[in-house]
Design goal:
The chain is built from twelve helices and 23 strands. It is of the alpha/beta class. The strands form five sheets. It has a seven-stranded mixed beta sheet. The chain is elongated. Bound molecules: MU-OXO-diiron (FEO). The site of MU-OXO-diiron has 8 residues, from helix 2.
């Protein structure tokens, strides 16, 4: 059975929810699933915007056929060539033999790398700013390289004022029927996952995102149609403001995320003591994560959200505990910067973790300010170190 949703009388969502995939890109847990969005405009000509992952192929082909109501498909607009959006291109091309594929040079280079060159005679190769009329609907293609791959472009439909944004403004989480943001409590249902999606998928590419925001600011936009998560209608300004912060690596709130690794609970105990002291110092926004238990994607999202981070780790094989080293390297890969950071190192002999965490942060990350003295414990934190940790808590609180 098909499940489609009309955004307007001529524009139909034909995507599908995936509740089975365990990890997005085989890295990021999906406790709430994910949607793969695709849209059809029906006019004198018909156009399909992207396809979906092969996991929802059957549902998708039924949706496209139902939305077209027996009509042929004239164009497939390929905004992004990552396989979660283009795995059904060949199926669409086979089912609709007259369909033309719209993309740029890089789109087709990737299409041939992943799939086939057999569709060459169907290519319509576009340049930045090119336009395509479907009848009363007019499309303008705006390149958005590295949001999130080099071939990405967004499409502005000027009659109904929709911006099809590829990965930008997407979120993890299925739609479960509420295709448009104002049909659900968007902020409570999606904001955390929108942040985790952005920061882990697109977070590295802040400058390209800012360039896209600049292009979008010149447009009158009534709806944003991303490739994952709900269509934005009510929360466009809210999410654009979030993107401005995230893409410039500006914290959303003054607060502290404490990430620790701990083998036997002693480093965790020190991290918990610091959290309580921070609270006593008046810090309202505190989040504590066990890096061995919590997937790094959640910690990265909180590092984008908060102004300060504390890294706490025992020494392991004369280095940093692997779960903490992964968090620091992942945060650096996502270009986390402009944060205050503090260090809690632990060691039972030849203590190295504190020194090496500090060195790694300084080596890999930009504009990171060390707050307080690195705090060292030997196997366990001792009561006589209480005052020293209070000083660290005060230094962090004073820095907010
Ligand atoms: Fe959802 Fe970059 O693909």
């Amino acid at each position: 059975m098909y499940s489609i949703y009309s955004l307007t009388p001529d524009i139909v969502w034909v995507g599908a929810d995936d509740r089975r995939l365990e990890r997005f890109e085989n890295l990021f847990p999906l406790p709430n699933g994910v949607s793969y969005n695709s849209y059809i405009i029906k006019d004198e000509k018909t156009a399909l915007f992207d396809t979906v992952d092969s996991s929802v192929h059957s549902q998708y082909m039924q949706n496209v056929a139902a939305a077209l109501e027996g009509r042929q498909l004239d164009y497939l607009i390929i905004s992004h060539m990552e396989p979660d959006h283009c795995d059904c291109i060949k199926d669409i091309a086979a089912a609709y033999p007259d369909v033309k594929l719209v993309g740029n040079q890089k789109t087709f280079q990737l299409l041939e790398q992943f799939y086939t060159a057999e569709l060459k005679d169907r290519y319509v190769i576009i340049k930045d700013g090119d336009e395509l009329s479907l009848g009363k609907h007019h499309l303008k293609f705006l390149f958005a390289a590295m949001v999130h791959w080099p071939e990405v472009f967004v499409t502005y439909e000027s009659t109904e004022k929709l911006l099809f944004t590829a990965d930008a403004f997407g979120t993890f989480g299925t739609l479960s029927g509420n295709v448009i943001d104002d049909e659900c409590d968007f902020k409570s249902k999606y904001l955390e996952e929108a942040r985790r999606y952005y920061t882990n998928i697109v977070g590295k590419y802040g400058m390209p995102v800012q360039m896209l925001l600049k292009k979008a600011a010149a447009l009158d936009i009534k709806m944003i149609a991303p490739l994952h998560g709900p269509v934005l209608r009510e929360n466009i300004g809210f999410m654009v403001d979030k993107y401005k912060l995230w893409s410039t690596y500006t914290p959303e709130v003054q607060g502290v995320v404490i990430a620790y690794s701990s083998m036997y609970g002693n480093t965790a105990s020190a991290a918990n003591a610091l959290a309580v002291m921070l609270s006593q110092q008046g810090v309202k926004n505190i989040k504590v994560h066990d890096a061995s238990k919590t997937n790094a994607s959640y910690i990265i999202a909180d590092m984008f959200k908060f102004s300060n981070v504390v890294f706490a780790s025992p020494t392991y094989n004369l280095g940093i505990h692997y779960s903490m080293e992964f968090v620091i390297r992942e945060a650096a890969a996502m270009c986390i910067q402009n944060r205050g950071y503090s260090i809690i190192g632990n060691g039972s002999w030849a203590s190295q973790a504190g020194t090496k965490m500090n060195a790694l942060v300084q080596e890999l990350m930009k504009n990171m300010t060390l707050i307080g003295e690195p705090f060292e414990i030997t196997s366990t934190m001792k009561p006589e170190q209480y005052d020293q940790m209070q000083e660290l808590a005060k230094a962090i609180a004073d820095s907010l």
